[in-house]
Amino acid sequence: MKTAMVIGGGIGGLVTALKLNREGVSVRVFESVGTIKALGVGINLLPHAVRVLTELGLEEELKKTGIPTAELMYVNKFGKKIWQEDRGLNAGYRWPQYSIHRGRLQMILLKAVKERLGENAVVTGHHLTSFHDSGDNVTAEFITKRTGEHLGSYHADVMIAADGIHSVVRNFFYPDEGPPKFSGRILWRGLTESTPFLTGKSMIMAGHQDQKIVAYPICPDTAAKGRSLVNWIAELTVGGEMPPRADWNHAVDKEKFLPKFAKWDFGWLDVPQVIKSATDIFEFPMVDRDPLPQWTFGRVTLLGDAAHPMYPIGSNGASQAILDADALGQSILENQNAELALKSYEQIRMEPTANIVFANRKNGPEEVMQIVEERATKGFESLDDVITKQELEKIANKYKKVAGFDRETLNQK
Ligand SMILES: Cc1cc2nc3c(=O)[nH]c(=O)nc-3n(C[C@H](O)[C@H](O)[C@H](O)COP(=O)(O)OP(=O)(O)OC[C@H]3O[C@@H](n4cnc5c(N)ncnc54)[C@H](O)[C@@H]3O)c2cc1C
């Protein structure tokens, strides 16, 4: 295989371009938006994804841009500790876990793609509308999304669809699938500069499945000033119909959800104050899609959210897209035949990612918060009366295995 078209210049698409370029494939990325901007708020990169980015030579950039997450703590809605575990290097992994701004990560990747593959390797303002697999190559047609103007066609030996949760390519193969599945929960995400909490590198989750707060700092520059740029996510079960189309950049008024969190001042973290002090807040319905029976069709395959959108639980969205890119690169290296390479990638990645989709529907590692809420809705004096240490450990370890980052296995790589 000599050439590849990657559809979508998000996290998955750009890492795929870097990885395939490293395996000697000539890659062009086609992105729908005219200008790629540093959009989004915080995400987490788990150690297995950081390994892939480190092998791609991005270690120093990550160090400069992300906070190496030191611990993860679950607390109940009164701020009392349920579970604490070390994370990343602190937990003995060979690679850190990073809490990082999604848009800044995308800019690191974009810069690396342009430096290594050339400025013209990323073609913006090109929205894929249709494609044809002749058996020898793939032809793709593009338009300007805003005007509908036809921009012409491009060919390559294979096409990798990393075009996100509303993937055109997935819709082509599964036309009856319909919109993403709504969990009944809404997420509001924002960024707030505040005094550091706990270690200053801690990630916390408070509450239970119907009302939750997640918070973690994401900016080393702010940390250097003795402050924290806290990425936070407030989550509520609202039920009913899915709000209009899922859009990461839909800004909303905090009064929509702030009253529900009015009493969540834990002393070490004043949740209502953090929400009040945020500038922009974005709303997103928590959605996923059912796992698919097939990603690869001849010379075309799906990757990242196009292949396996999942609830944003357990820090997996971006990390799993990066693992896909790694597996695809490895499969291409090991298989001369393009169709076999894409099929081998599907075989490696389809089942593990489906397992995460299912685990996240049951709250993933956050299951412990729900158990404690159900057993002690008015709070607890002693956690031992509510849940045993063994039960807590079992749930945490099980999820690490499902998501592919249990320390012993990963450190052997
Ligand atoms: C603007 C934006 C902001 C986000 N913010 C957050 C966040 O704050 N927190 C979080 O956890 N996750 C966020 N996500 C989602 C997160 O990036 C993904 O879940 C994860 O990184 C997997 O990446 P992906 O590459 O599969 O998909 P994405 O990162 O969603 O990338 C898909 C890309 O494909 C492009 N695209 C779509 N359709 C076409 C088409 N027909 N032709 C060409 N290009 C197309 C899109 O413009 C986008 O750049 C955001 C996604 C986007 C697009």
From TrEMBL:
It holds the Pfam family FAD_binding_3. Keywords: Monooxygenase, Oxidoreductase. Residues 4-351 form the FAD-binding domain. The keyword Heme does not apply. InterPro entries: FAD-bd, FAD-dep_Monooxygenase_BioMet, FAD/NAD-bd_sf. GO terms for molecular function: FAD binding; monooxygenase activity. This is Flavin-dependent oxidoreductase.
